[in-house]
Amino acid sequence: MGAPVPTERDRTIHRRVGHYMADVANLLLRDGYPVIYISSCPPEELGDSEDDGGGYVDLGTEMVAQINGAPKDVLDLHFDWNTSSGWSLVMHGRGAAPIERWMGAGLTPAPEKVAGFFLSSLLDFRNAGSEDRPYYRQPGHDLDGLAERLAPFDRKGSFNDRFRTDRNATAERRAVDAVLGEDTVLSIPARAGELAALQHLVHFVAMSSDLREVAVRLLADLKARAVTTTDRNQTTAVTRHSTGAEQAKQLRRSGRG
Fold first, then answer.
1. In angstroms, what CA-CA distances link 103 with 89, 115, 119, 126?
2. Would you give the DSSP letter of residue 93?
3. How far apart are CA 11 and CA 46, in angstroms?
4. What is the value of pTM for the model shown?
5. Interval 103-150: pLDDT, tens
6. Residue ranges of the alpha helices (H) in the chain?
7. What separation, in Å, do the N-terminal and C-terminal C-alpha atoms of the chain show?
8. Contact yes or no for 22/38 (Cβ under 8 A)
């Protein structure tokens, strides 16, 4: 027998979960944390007697370095929302079982509370929340009640489109602020190949998580080499080649930045 055809209620739950994930993701983006992707379980997975779905918010692995208590060799970091147990922050390491901290605070806490839990996890991952999984509903039962719990997060339209639009707007705003912010002139030793690689990566980085990781690490390398300089030649070179700053000014004047 094939999988049952999703009902309108199941599709509604799928949409509401997705917008709930987008609400949390947008708060994290606003606070400067790199959110890469969000997801909601396919509606045909609802009603499973063991685990009837959920959603997640995928974070860039560069965040791991900012988490106090994070193990070494973490390959994946994401927020998981389970339709029975609510939110948890999950780390996957190389060849090890996932490490998971459960938020508690009910099945559908306000997005602001979820963002607060993430901040507490940054400060002390091992003591944030609990390692014991809570249960707020039984999988496979009372899907009407689940839909009602998620009603405050309902929106029209695609949650993926909404997330991408908000993510791009946040990235644009932060980039413009950075370009037009501090004017300290730096000297950065760089290989020609590194600069060429960055030129290529800027076109393709959104298409591949592996390429994104290369870009993040390459930029971190260049940042680590940078030193403040008062060299007149360096200062002149910066003022002569500032087309990116001019473009940022145009974006800000247009109201997009």
1. 8, 11, 12, 12
2. E
3. 10
4. 0.82
5. 999 999 999 999 999 999 989 988 899 999 999 998 888 889 999 999
6. 8-30, 111-123, 143-149, 159-179, 192-204, 209-225, 232-240, 243-254
7. 53
8. yes
